[in-house]
Amino acid sequence: MxxxxxxxxxxxxxxxxxxxxxDLVLLHHVVEHMPDAKPxxxxxxxxxxxxxxxxxAFPSLRSLSLPSASKWPLQFCxxxxxxxxxxxxxxxxxxxxxxxxxxxxxxxxxxxxxxxGLIVLPWAVLTKLATGKFSAKGLWYIVGFxxxxxxxxx
Length: 154
What we know:
Elements: E1 22-28, H1 37-47, E2 48-59, H2 88-96, E3 100-107, H3 111-131, H4 140-143, E4 146-153
Parallel strand pairs: 1-2
Antiparallel strand pairs: 2-4, 3-4
Helix pairs in contact: 1-2
């Protein structure tokens, strides 16, 4: 590791990272924990090298209509640290306004994980019947819990 940056969800520490220095930025289930993700996303766009990629995955708006679950969140509010409901359009517009072309956005799909989810589904239903608690482990990709945005800096 060449450098370490202590970054806060409130946007502190990001200015210490040099601009145009990263080929890839991954935010996998991070933005929903930030009170105001827009300025941080804008700052991270500047950290990308020209041609660099940014991947952002987050709970979908659809997750608000999913049943509550234990162990693994299935409904957005299952996780008390979720403080911001990201929206594909809002995230995409923030990236676009900061020089990032949107390559793909929408519901996250993973065939292998969806197949695993289908196998796990009967177990989740039986667990709900037996304990009164629904386990969401393995079900994200079949119920549409996650959305994503993939962009590339111009």
